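User: ok so my PI wants both of these folded by tonight, can you help

Assistant: No problem, let's get them done. Here's the first:
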Amino acid sequence: MEYFAFQWHITEACDQRCKHCYIYALGSHAKFREMSVPDMRTVIENCQTFCRKARRAPYLYVTGGDPILHPDFWTLLELLREADIPFALMGNPFHVTPEAARRMKACGCRKYQLSLDGLRETHDRIRQPGSYDATMAAIPILRGAGIDVAIMATVSRWNHRELPALVDEVAAHHADIFAFARYCPGPDDRDACCSPEEYRAVLDGCWKKFQEHKGCGTTFNLKDHLWTLYRYEIGDFDPKAFPDDGIVYGGCNCGNCHLTILPDGAVYACRRMESRVGSALTDDLYDLFTGPRLDAYRQYEKFEKCARCELLRFCRGCPAVAAGYHGSMYAPDPECWKEVMQI
């Protein structure tokens, strides 16, 4: 049975102050929101009900803030263990001890995602001093407990030139997975985005590093959808290999196989943009997912540039980056370098 992914933010509490953090950008750190245990039980039950109706299996990505800082963090993990729901954690390195890692694994944690946003000086400037070394130190602790370690980077003008060198560092430290996504700007910081040419150079540099490190044990996850465009250009992806059946085979997961749940129960199509569609505490998640609010994220003919591209069913760039940059998720991805042809 295929999985359906829920990204579940259980708290806003965090002991980093990242330049690209949407929680702090909104000013909500004046009072951290966190979900109560009764509400956690409700969310788990609603996710299970959704998956029974959808004939999928739930997979939870538990995050925050830093989920470990939630006062009932271990209670939640026990609830997930009792429900036999597989999950990953997405958090900071500062509270990852050998004992905590063993306990997470015993509760069923399969993966722990850490962030690296450049080499040491750049990463510590974006997040906080000492964060780079703490992240690298957490990798062997987690792997020693049998938990896969994913390293995630957020690409921006602040760090884009360092991404290929970061691939070397991640491979040298034996991370299990490496991927990156892009910074989602607001109206006042559009210049934090790379130019299309700069971003293609990032992909090109990283692709060459991926080839160098083949067989090293690190999986290089091509998370950003513009990887499809890059691979298409270098002859590594052929859309003609797929039937001309109108089915969407890749690209943004909004409205496809993913929902986000916030500490107050709000359900978002994507946490990286304003996309609230309902509540995991009061709404039927299956009705939400199959209803008109999520349909807005499946109306691919509205995408101004992508709808005219032969890669529509496989790419579509990042609607969240487009929404932050232009104010509309249907606007062209500002970092896409493709000259669109008519289909």
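One down. Here's the second:
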Amino acid sequence: MTVVALHGICDDGAKVDVLETRGSVVLSATVEGHGEGSSCTKQAKMQQVTVKLAHPVNDRPVLDAHTGRPVSYKGLQGISS
């Protein structure tokens, strides 16, 4: 599964962890490394992150770990499997 995650322009990129159950797929995005310095701004970058699943998504909802809500499918700008 490929997801799009946001991260800052001065950090080392996005990381997405996955927790699979029989009833759902839960995604948790974090940022690796925290950039510092005077050239860092609050700009965000979109990054495609591939998450390996043990089983196909099928009819399981894909949930955001931080909100508990379903992750919306947005074609090339969202998730795909």
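The radius of gyration is 14 Å. The first strand starts at residue 2 and ends at 8. Good luck tonight!
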